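Hi Y.,

Following your request, here is the sequence exactly as I used it, all 413 residues.
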Amino acid sequence: MPTFTYLIRTPDGIRQEGEIEAANIVDATDILRKNDQIVVKISEKDTSIDFLTPFILRFNHAMSRLKARVPLNNIVFFTRQLATMFAAGLTIERALHFLSTEEKHKKFKAVVIKLENDVKKGMQLSDALERHPGVFSNLYIALVSAGEVSGKLSETLDDLASYLETLEDTRRKVKSALYYPIFILVFLFCALLFMFTKIIPKFAEIYDQLGSALPFYTRVMTGIADWVTRNIVAVLFITFVVLLLSWLFTLTDSGRLIWDRFTMRIPIFGKMIRQSILAKFTKTFGILISAGVSVLEALGLTAKVVGNRVFELAIAQASDDIENGINISRALKDTTAFPPIMIQLISTGEETGEIDQLSLKASEFYTKQVNATIDRLTSILEPIMLLLVAMVIGMVVIATYLPIFQVGQALAQ
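Below is the corresponding structure, written out as C-alpha cells. Let me know if you'd prefer a different format.
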C-alpha cells in the first residue's frame, strides 16, 4: 500500500504531521478526518531516489551560466542605471533602450536588447528577466517582481544594486584569500615539473659522462625526474580526468554535501567560508523581507543563494518548521547550523517587528568578520607560502648541485 505524508490540525488547534498507509489518497483523507481533524495538507510519499534529475539540472544551469557569462560588475551597473532612470521618470522600455545602446559587453548587450523587445510586447520586467536564467539569478528576478507588485521598483532596484555590490566585494575578498595559496601551489607544481623534465635530466647526463657516483638523495630526485619525463602525458591526463570527475560529483546532492562539509572543516578557511555564507544569508533574507516577500518564499530564495548544501538543508528544515507554526528564530536554532548571535538578532527582530533591519545588521557583523579573517590570513599566508616555495626549490637545487662537490674527484680519476 502507498504511504502518504500529512499535516492536520486537531479540534484543539494543534498542528500534527506524520505518515499513513492507505489504498489511495481519498481513503487516507477519510481516515485522518475522523475525530473532527482538519486535513491541512496530504500527499503521496515519493520513495524513489532520483540522483539523475538534480545532476542534470545543475549541469544545464552551469553550462547556461558558462555560455551566457556576464561579469557581475556589468549587471550591477545595469541595475543601478535602470533604477536611476526609472526614478527620474523614464519608462522601463526607454531605459532599457538607452542601456542597450550604451552597453559594451556583446553578450550582455544582446540580453538587454531582448529584454527591451519583451517589455515592448507587454511583458513585465520580471517575466522578461526570467527568460535569461544564466544571467539573472532567482533572487534578482524575485526582488524585481516584489518591486513591481509593491510599486517601489526604483527603490528595490537601487537596494538590489547595493546588495550585488556588497556580495561581489565579499566574494572577491574570499576568493582572493583562497586563490593566493592555490596560485602559489600551482606555481610550485609547474616549477617542479619544469625542473624534473628539463633541468635535472641535463645534470644527470653530465654526471654520467663524468662517471661521478651520485649521492643517494640526488639519485632519488633524478629517478623521479626520469619517471615524470616518461609519463608526463599520462600524469596530465589523469589529473584532468580526476578534476573533471570531482567537479561532476559536486553537481550531485551527495557530492555537494560531502564537499561543502569538507570545506567548512578546513582550519581557518572553514570559519571564513561559514562567516561568508552567514553574511550572504542574512543580507539576502533582510532585503527580501524589506521588499515585501513572505518569510517562506524569502527562505526558499535564500537557500538558492547561499551556495552551500549544508545550509540549504538547514533552511529547508527551518521552512518546514515555520510552516508548522514555529517562529523563525526557534526554527533556525533547531537546525543547529546557525550561530547563537544570529539567532538572537533574529529573535529580537521578531519581537520588535524589525526582522529585516536586524538581519541586515547581522550581515554587516559577519561581513566585518570575513574581512578581518581575510586580513589575518593574508598576513600569515604570505610568509608561510614563500617559505614553502623556498624550501621545496632549495631542496631540488641542493639535490641537483650536490654532486658538484664530487666532480673534482671524478675528473682526477
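The first strand starts at residue 3 and ends at 9.

Thanks again,
Q.
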